[in-house]
Specification:
The complex is a heterodimer of chains A (116) and B (113).
Chain A: E1 4-7, E2 10-13, E3 19-25, E4 31-37, E5 44-51, E6 54-57, E7 64-66, E8 76-78, E9 87-94, E10 106-107, E11 111-115
Parallel strand pairs in A: 2-11
Antiparallel strand pairs in A: 1-3, 3-8, 4-5, 4-9, 5-6, 7-8, 9-10, 9-11
Chain B: E1 4-7, E2 10-14, E3 19-25, E4 32-38, E5 45-51, E6 56-59, E7 62-67, E8 72-77, E9 86-93, E10 101-103, E11 107-112
Parallel strand pairs in B: 2-11
Antiparallel strand pairs in B: 1-3, 3-8, 4-5, 4-9, 6-7, 7-8, 9-10, 9-11
The chains are: A mainly beta (116), B mainly beta (113).
Chain lengths: 116, 113
Amino acid sequence: NAGVTQTPKFQVLKTGQSMTLQCAQDMNHEYMSWYRQDPGMGLRLIHYSVGAGITDQGEVPNGYNVSRSTTEDFPLRLLSAAPSQTSVYFCASRRPSQGERGGEQYFGPGTRLTVT
Amino acid sequence: KNQVEQSPQSLIILEGKNCTLQCNYTVSPFSNLRWYKQDTGRGPVSLTIMTFSENTKSNGRYTATLDADTKQSSLHITASQLSDSASYICVVSADSSASKIIFGSGTRLSIRP
């Protein structure tokens, strides 16, 4: 299994440009999430999905869109890039929680995005 | 407000020494607490998980403890190795919802030869 894959690994955008960060998983996980990681801060949830066709907002959704047409793929779209969106983006997947042990999250390698 | 705070922010120790990282949380309700290891340029990888009724969990040279009464957890690393250089992140789940997972900002550990 490849696990969770993300492309691209690095990206530089100019303010106002749009782009899509790709995420795919081959573990048949129902739950998928997008996080951003900024220096000195914990990972913050952008959007998440509990299954194909179902998405919801996380803590910091503004400026981002997601869709989930298949179980495997969960792309993140930046509509009009801003310097504040410079960050490292991680996609994660897991199975639905089974009791208090909760599903372990599997993270992709990340996409480092710079907006100038 | 649900929060997870970790200390220290960074730590440098010599190879072979032991160290302990701290995590305090104010997450409610509490479902479980995980420690993740994040190597530079990589995504986090789960090391241990503890539920309310578990107060210690080991994974090789890593031992995590949990005091649910004081809402504190620690991660103890024994006989450190150069490969232990990484960030260690404490993560608390409030319930089974995908949106109720709170991340600490991590402790950056550097092992010197």
